């Protein structure tokens, strides 16, 4: 997939191949995060043990804003597959802009589910993948660092739904236009769903968790990510959020015609 070549970006096979590659990135980051406990202090606003001068949010938000400010200056959010968590805090790039050909509708940056992704990550995912529920004051920086990487990987995966949606819209404009005009949300959900593809993803994740989640030379050793948790995260959170992105993107698609 090459964002300078629109025809490669809207090819459903290329999109799905990219989603498969992202699985590995996400699994290895889950494994990194599994070395630490949940560390609720990282996510609490104005935690008494973790005061940040002139900032009212959580330690994670502070670190994420700083990271996005730097990354925006090196052009991260010019790329159509990257979505900032704090769009109002990002800065102008210091590198010259790349003129990506437009593949998504102009309103696409407004389809931003990062608030919900962060919420689901903190309140559900960390409890499934962490070593145990509790603090570890000496690792707050490491936890926030891996959280930022994980949130950005999950965000990229879930917002890839925009490319899937655009490819599906272009493959059957009359059908999607009708459903969009009639605000037939159920019909859109039905049409974007491909249960066979979803089943294949979940099957593959089981195998990947079996292989990557344990030391291959010590199968009886401690498991870092289990097939059950990985499948639960994808089935209940990642895939449904991807579909939400697809539907939200499609519902506005006729604005761009
Ligand atoms: O591959 C697709 O067609 C998608 O829409 C992506 C995706 C996913 O999140 O992986 C979502 C919905 C489909 O049911 C299958 C898979």
TrEMBL record:
Which Gene Ontology cellular-component terms appear in the entry? cytoplasm; nucleus
A Gene Ontology biological process in which this protein takes part is: chorismate metabolic process
- The Chorismate mutase domain, residue ranges: 142-246
Q: Where in the cell is it found?
A: Cytoplasm
Please list the coiled coil stretches.
none
E.C. code: 5.4.99.5
A GO molecular function held by the record? tryptophan binding
- Reaction it catalyzes: chorismate = prephenate
Give the UniProt keywords, A-Z: Allosteric enzyme, Amino-acid biosynthesis, Aromatic amino acid biosynthesis, Cytoplasm, Isomerase, Phenylalanine biosynthesis, Tyrosine biosynthesis
- Main location group: cytoplasm
Q: Which SUPFAM superfamilies match?
A: Chorismate mutase II
Q: Which InterPro entries match?
A: Chorismate_II_sf (IPR036263), Chorismate_mutase_AroQ_euk (IPR008238), CM_AroQ_sf_eucaryotic (IPR037039), CM_II_prokaryot (IPR002701)
> What pathway, per the record?
Metabolic intermediate biosynthesis; prephenate biosynthesis; prephenate from chorismate: step 1/1
Q: Isomerase among the record's keywords?
A: yes
Q: Where are the transmembrane segments?
A: none
Asked if the record carries the keyword Cytoplasm, the reply is yes
Give the protein's biological function. Catalyzes the Claisen rearrangement of chorismate to prephenate. Acts at the first branch point in the aromatic amino acid pathway where it steers biosynthesis towards phenylalanine and tyrosine, and away from tryptophan.
Subunit-structure text:
Homodimer.
Output the PANTHER family linked to this UniProt entry.
CHORISMATE MUTASE (PTHR21145)
Q: What is this protein called?
A: Chorismate mutase
């Amino acid at each position: 997939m090459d964002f300078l070549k629109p025809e490669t970006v809207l090819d459903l096979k290329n999109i799905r191949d990219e989603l498969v590659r992202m699985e590995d990135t996400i699994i290895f980051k889950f494994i990194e995060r599994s070395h630490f406990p949940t560390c609720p202090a990282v996510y609490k606003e104005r935690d008494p043990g973790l005061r940040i001068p002139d900032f009212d949010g959580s330690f994670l938000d502070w670190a994420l804003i700083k990271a996005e400010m730097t990354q925006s200056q090196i052009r991260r959010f010019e790329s159509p597959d990257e979505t900032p968590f704090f769009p109002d805090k990002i800065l102008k790039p210091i590198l010259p802009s790349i003129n990506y050909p437009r593949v998504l509708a102009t309103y696409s940056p407004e389809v931003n589910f990062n608030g919900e992704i962060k919420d689901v990550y903190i309140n559900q995912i960390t409890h499934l993948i962490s070593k145990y529920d509790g603090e570890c004051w000496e690792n707050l920086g490491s936890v926030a660092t891996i959280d930022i990487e994980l949130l950005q990987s999950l965000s990229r995966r879930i917002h890839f739904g925009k490319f899937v949606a655009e490819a599906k819209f272009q493959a059957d404009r009359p059908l999607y236009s009708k459903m969009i005009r009639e605000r037939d949300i159920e019909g859109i959900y039905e049409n974007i769903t491909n249960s066979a593809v979803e089943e294949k993803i979940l099957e593959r994740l089981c195998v990947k968790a079996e292989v990557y989640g344990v030391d291959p030379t010590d199968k009886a050793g401690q498991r870092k990510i289990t097939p059950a948790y990985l499948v639960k995260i994808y089935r209940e959170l990642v895939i449904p959020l991807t579909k939400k992105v697809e539907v939200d993107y499609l519902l506005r698609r006729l604005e761009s015609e």
